[in-house]
Specification:
This protein has 370 residues and is an alpha/beta fold. It is built from eleven helices and twelve strands.
């Protein structure tokens, strides 16, 4: 009976010791761990005592820059309390720089000096605090708690930035996929119109289908440029106009001169602008040069203060007197007028030498950015 009682007491005592040890370990793990870097032994001992009295854990004390770097990498503290003047060799600023390069840990400098050159050097390491010796316990505690809070907020900010970058990357991939599908669908529509052209013999119907194909290609060219670009909202209008001119030259065997500035324009402006260019150049190619007469077609785009000026002109026979502007009867010119209104612009017609349409419209960049 006595042996059983002693055994039970021994087991109970052992369990109590284990529980006490686990509590101490758990309590120690929950404490903020502060690495102290101080070359003066008595000062380091005093700082360690103060920190422990304030319920901080001090896993290590280093008395040189080299020791500080090694101790930080080994102990992985929550905060580093770093003296700047370490009595020769690597100073606290250099040690802090090396620690910050390896660990995401806040560093608080402790120094008896605060001259301007020292502060400028210290700033390079982005410290989380700067305490002048001698200091009170409140100053030490306040700097540590503020450093921990700022570090927590900085980590949250970094996580938010990472999530934002991931979301932007996903959006970029999605936009590329959309542009790719739109581009391919427009090409498919253009190809189907081309196949239909092969089945049509009547001249007027062929012209209607061909003009429809060119309008589709004008929109497809934009999406093709966007797909190959890093930006999905703007395109370089000079590049776009040159592409349009090249396709129209191929379709009508007529030279088209491009005189355009390299202007980045929002896609909502570029699409009606491109359709308008396509329509006017098509009209010039079909009607301005009867029986293969020589002449030029020119597309110009220039910035005029806050406005853009688009001019499509030819040196051909000019428009028939029956064409009344700004109240045209033909389908193509009515489309031109509609796209001009969509761009909030005004269109002027000059008949003095051939036909010259000038569209003046606002650069709606500000509208799209707001």
């Amino acid at each position: 009976m006595k042996l059983e009682t002693e055994y039970v007491l021994s087991v109970s005592s052992f369990q109590f010791l284990v529980s006490s040890f686990q509590f101490q370990v758990s309590n120690s793990m929950n404490k903020t761990r502060v690495l102290v870097v101080e070359d003066e032994h008595l000062v380091a001992k005093d700082i360690r005592r103060k920190l422990q009295n304030m319920d901080y854990d001090v896993p290590a004390v280093a008395n040189s820059g080299d020791e500080a770097v090694k101790a930080a990498l080994q102990a992985r503290p929550d905060v580093v309390l770093m003296d700047i003047d370490l009595g020769g060799g690597m100073d606290g600023i250099e040690a802090a720089s090396r620690i910050r390069a390896e660990l995401d840990v806040p560093v608080i400098f402790v120094s008896a000096y605060a001259n301007e050159s020292l502060l400028e050097r210290a700033k390079i390491t982005t410290p989380f605090g700067y305490i002048l010796k001698p200091f009170q316990n409140d100053a030490l505690r306040n700097n540590i708690e503020i450093a921990l809070y700022n570090q927590k907020q900085e980590r949250k900010l970094k996580q938010s930035e990472e999530h934002l970058r991931a979301a932007l990357k996903e959006k970029d991939l999605l936009m590329r996929e959309i542009e790719h599908r739109v581009k391919n669908n427009l090409q498919a529509v253009g190809s189907m119109i081309q196949l239909q052209l092969l089945q049509v013999n009547e001249h007027n119907y062929r012209d209607i289908l061909k003009e429809g194909e060119l309008r589709v290609r004008a929109m497809g060219t934009i999406h093709n440029l966007l797909y190959r670009s890093d930006c999905f909202t703007h395109i370089d209008m000079r590049v776009y106009i040159r592409n349009l001119a090249s396709e129209l030259q191929t379709s009508y065997s007529r030279t088209v001169i491009v005189d355009a500035e390299p202007l980045d324009v929002h896609i909502d402006t570029a699409i009606p602008c491109g359709l308008l260019i396509n329509e006017l150049v098509t009209n010039s190619c079909k009607y301005a040069f009867p029986e293969g007469a020589d002449g030029e077609i020119t597309i110009g785009l220039h910035a005029r203060n806050e406005m853009l000026e688009l001019r499509v002109s030819d040196t051909g026979a000019g428009l028939p007197p029956a064409v009344v502007w700004p109240n045209p009867q033909s389908f193509g010119l009515r489309l031109v007028q509609g796209w001009g209104e969509q761009l909030r612009g005004t269109i002027e017609l000059d008949r003095s030498a051939g036909a010259s349409f000038t569209l003046t419209f606002p650069n709606r960049e500000a509208d799209h950015e707001s």
